[in-house]
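hey so i finally got around to running the thing on that chain from the lab meeting. sorry it took forever, my laptop kept dying and i had to restart like 3 times. anyway pasting the input first so we r on the same page abt which one it is
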Amino acid sequence: MKRYVIDTNVLISFVTDRNPEQQQKIVPLFEAAAHLKAVILCHQYVLTEFIYVMDKVYHLAKAEIGRMVADLSQMPGIEVVQACDFAAVLSCWPDPLADFGDAVIASVGMLKRGALIVTFDRKFAGGLKSLGLGIYPFEP
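ok and heres what got predicted. didnt touch it at all, straight out
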């Protein structure tokens, strides 16, 4: 079964209308996971950033954010990754990945061999390529 590691912006694009083009691109991946045709790996660091953005940027009620996180974590095809392999994180942070959160996400891709990392962030994608990690191929 195909495995995908999502970053925070992918999750935010999925649940909000901030960028309809990105949302349209990511919906099929979440639908595949919901039908157990794929597994989406979501590190708890992504959930922490997601909660922060939904609270501080979108000003959603904490109870609503909590329901969103609960729904996501209970959705078929979603696997919340709790573990953090700091050796893997530090092997790519701060170089070539200057963002610590990106390094955490990349470390999941390193440890879950064959998993593609899903991101809309071109700089992050460039760093992933330099590490030899697979990236989800969005259509141009």
